Amino acid sequence: MFHEAYGRLLALSETKPQEPNRASLAWLIKQYKNSAEFEALATPTQDDYGKTLKLLVAEMGDEPFRLITRAMVKAVRDDHAATARKAHKIKQMVSCLYIWAGENDHVVEGHNPAASIKRFKKRVKPITPWSEEDIVLFLKHCPAFLKTPILLALYTGQRREDIVQMDWMAFQGPYVRVRQSKTGEPLDIACHRELRKHLSSVKTDFGGPIARTAKGRPFTPNSLSQAIRRIVLGIDDMPDDRSIHGLRYAAAARLDEAGCTVAQAVSVMGHRTYQMAIKYMGQRAASRAAVTKQEQNN
Question: How far is CA 107 from the centre of its chain?
Answer without folding.
Answer: 35
